[in-house]
Amino acid sequence: MEQTAQKDRNFYTHIASLSLTKLCDGLIDPKLVLAWLLTTVGAGALWVGMLVPVREAGALLPQLFTAEPIRRLPVRKWAWVAGSIVQGFTAAGIAIAALTLEGANAGIVIVALVALLATARSIGSVSYKDVLGKTVAKPLRGQSAGTAASVAAAGVFLFGFLLMTGLIDRYTLVVSGLLLAGVLWIVAATIFASLQEVPTAPASPTTVGVWRTYWQYLTTDRELQRLIVARALLLATAIAPPYLILLAGESTGGTFTALGALVIASSLASLVSGHVWGVFSDRSTAKVLQYAGMLSAGVLAAAVGLSSAGYFANVVVVAATLFMLMVAYQGVRIGRSTHLVNIAGEHTRTSYTALSNTIIGVALLVTGAFGALVPVIGLVGVVVSLAVMCALGAWVSTYMTG
């Protein structure tokens, strides 16, 4: 009876902590919030353009180097706690930099802080999946992530609503959101520290070496190979939104500026789909990835058609298209995360997470070069290419088990 109560407490502790950190992610979103902030302080296009690559790749690439030290910790929740605390102080630092610096100086400092935040996030990402596998039963893992995504989306929705209505000065609201994110990350760390995690005997060094062990995992585990390939192809769901905005700008003959509407569309997608994808993932993670890939391919194909017909000049059409794409994106995130936890063992989860995330970090940098293709094949060509990637990701997912 006591063991059941402990598992229930752990389940809700995960939801509470993850809800707060996902809300923080929305308040500090580099694609929208930080890009607008750097533009406002006059940082310049160079530093604005570096935000997303630094944030996304920085959160993935270090994991191959941080995984082994974390794997040797008997209680691994403390790695997540430390990462969350660092992210909290970093978010506050970004707010202070925005208030005290201007121009290129603001850009340099804020991008550097984003790099630090991303590194701390990488530590949290590696440790979280391992702690989740140790502290939450398999039938509930997807639900914990999905429910947290839906809860956090409600807060981000309110943030987007305030941005759209102009009830509060936008600059004041953005800076206040950064400071709030700093506080909430530290609160999340405090909550997560209360998890009841049974110590694991530290893994012994392998005789063949860590790097050879990683190579062995990659070359012998067919399911891990399929997951990495599918995840790499489905990166298209993450990098497509800016191209939808560019399509909208092309349709209107200017720059698409409805920031609040897009934040609301994105948060609403998480709110209505996170829990559903989570429950579905507890039944079949492979099908979640398959259906999410098919949905995103269809949405991007529809975006091309709507843009060609002139409908992308309408903010409602653009927001609705982004909403459907973000629904698919939530499915990809929850499905691939839950699938990795399920296919790995207690002593391989951290290594599998680091290995796959590092490879995806490299793939992310490669897909970032899609912008260079715009002058060659046009925006429509890029979006069509991303739709093809999603369709291929769905196809690869049909060969996965789970």
Computed structural class = mainly alpha
Q: Roughly how much helix do the residues carry, as a percent range?
A: over 70%
Kindly report the CATH topology.
Growth Hormone, Chain: A
Question: What is the second-level CATH architecture?
Answer: Up-down Bundle
What series of H and E elements makes up the topology?
HHHHHHHHHHHHHHHHH
Mean pLDDT across every amino acid position:
83
Figure out the total of helices. 17
Biggest β-sheet strands, sense, barrel: none
Name the CATH homologous superfamily. Answer: MFS general substrate transporter like domains
Low-confidence stretches: none
Task: Tell me what the structure shows.
The chain is an all-alpha fold and 402 residues long. It has a single domain (2-397), classed as Up-down Bundle (Growth Hormone, Chain: A), CATH 1.20.1250.20. The chain is built from 17 helices and no strands. The protein has helices at 2-27, 30-40, 45-60, 63-71, 77-100, 103-135, 141-165, 170-192, 210-220, 222-233, 236-239, 241-252, 259-281, 285-308, 315-343, 349-367, 374-397. The longest helix has 33 residues, at 103-135. The radius of gyration is 20 Å and the shape is globular. The two termini are 30 Å apart. The model has no long low-confidence stretch (mean pLDDT 83).
